[in-house]
Amino acid sequence: MGSRIVIKLTIWIALLSLLSAGISVYFTYTHSRALLIQSSKDKLATATQVLANRYSFFIADITKDLLFIAQLPAIEEIASSHSPQTDKQRMRLANALSGFLRSHEEYIQVRFIGAHNHGLELVRVDKTQNAVHIVEGMALQEKAHYSYVYNTLKLKQGSVFVSGIRLNKERGLLDGYGKPSVIVATPVYGTNGNVFGVIVINVDLEKMFALIETDIPAGIDVIATNSAGDYILHPDAEKTFGFDKGARVLMQNDIPVTQHIFSGEVSSLVAEVHDFRFPEKQAVISLTKVPFATESDEKYIVLGLISNLDAVLEDSRQLGITSLQISLAFGVLFVLLSLILARKITTPLQRMATTFARFKQGDPVPELSTNRDDELGLLARNFSIMAKKLNAQLMELNTQRQYLHKVAHHDGLTGLPNRILLEDRIEQALISARRDKAEIAVMLIDLDDFKPVNDKYGNDIGDKLLQECAARMLTCIRETDTVARYGGDEFMTIVSARELQLRGMSARHISRQVADKIRTALNQPFKIDNFLLNISCSIGIAIYPQDGDDKNTLIKHADLAMYYAKSTGRNNVKLYTDTQTD
Hints:
Blueprint: H1 2-70, H2 73-80, H3 87-102, E1 107-114, E2 121-127, E3 132-135, H4 147-150, E4 161-162, E5 166-167, E6 180-189, E7 195-204, H5 205-212, E8 220-226, E9 231-233, H6 242-245, H7 251-254, H8 259-262, E10 268-274, E11 282-291, E12 295-296, E13 300-308, H9 310-357, H10 375-409, H11 419-436, E14 440-448, H12 450-457, H13 459-474, E15 482-487, E16 490-496, H14 498-501, H15 507-523, E17 526-528, E18 531-533, E19 536-544, H16 551-567, E20 573-575, H17 576-581
Parallel strand pairs: 4-12, 19-20
Antiparallel strand pairs: 1-2, 1-7, 2-3, 4-6, 5-6, 6-7, 8-9, 8-13, 10-11, 11-13, 14-16, 14-19, 15-16, 17-18
Helix pairs in contact: 1-9, 1-10, 2-3, 9-10, 12-13
């Protein structure tokens, strides 16, 4: 009778132990798999937003280059001339554009197109793989019938037009025919106030995206479509630019869930789909709309990343297999031990099962009695090791998530808050200011003569100079204030004046003091790699609520004040109100 009870108890203990282990392995596998997939989605969404920001900044840089060209003295000389342009004038401009084209590998053509004579090209410079060519004489063509010409001619001075991304079909570009490109243009006005022509830059899409896709890990593909859903970037090149090839291929037809982004229901999405390269495998796709901030043939483009889930799921599968193997091994051990020690080990096993039933992912490893020298102690130690491994993997995932959060909200070069975090802090500062009826100041700081230093000494010296400038600016503000990198060689500072206002000091006075400290600090020579560098800065200040009661208005007015400071001699500090009274 006693032996039958032991056998029955042993069988029940073994079955219950195996069942408990199976459930534990199942839920561990299921939850770890879901956590790994969610982590992959979060990382991909963050990387997609970074990609979209890079694209927007790239277009903004092209716009700055275009407006810079439009202000060249040679352009103004041709546009302001009352007599026909001479070959000498045009050659001066062509030589200037040639140098510009050589310094930008992604630009393949720069043109100055007149508004008359059916949009005849006045100056055109083309790039091949090996050289830059100035096109002259009969090779110059009429372009008035292209949308980037007649649409740009309708714009005000300083405005920019961006074409849709498509295959280049214009004859004459030396080796750009049939290549994907985007065209950016701005009007040029003469002294009589009438539009004289347009400046046009052709950008090689492949080279542009090669620059934008820097740091995208291997195994992740970049995709892009126009606002209609036509692919312009895809792992399978045959699917791209179908609208230019006579056979359209739309993303919403390939991946129905993406219809939500093209219908306007959402501006971004993350979803599990079939992998583009291997349809039998799973992947995660992350998409976001990137609207055009200027006049354009398109309302927006859609940028995205797609990542295969094999590597992520393999970790989860391996964890499940390892857990199952451990559980099976110790299940057999339970059977052998329970034949002799059924009564003795019943209570410890039940306690162990109860302890691990309460164990959740991310909790501290449960304390078990591991100081025994028998199989029960070995079992307890191995379960503890398994739980510690799982916690270690979860901690690593959390660390990666925190790192991605920092990357998304801080500038990689200076370590300062980036534009995303800056705008959030401005919103928070405005909320506090409205509640406390206090003032805040938003200061936009632009480094004078940074580009000549960067051009002369190289990007490495330029980067170190930006880091030193950031460090000096941090010494000029309080812990409650914020200094952030706004973009390029521009920085922005938020100054809260509540405590000092209680002592009778105005935000105008406080911000001016801080701005003068920053300007003085940056006026001191910088010693970088045995080079003694001298720069200055121009600072524009906008005060809440006098100069604006929302984030965008304050930033805009600070920007206007900064440009006013530059226009009055640089190395200067101007408030927005100065621009209204001077």
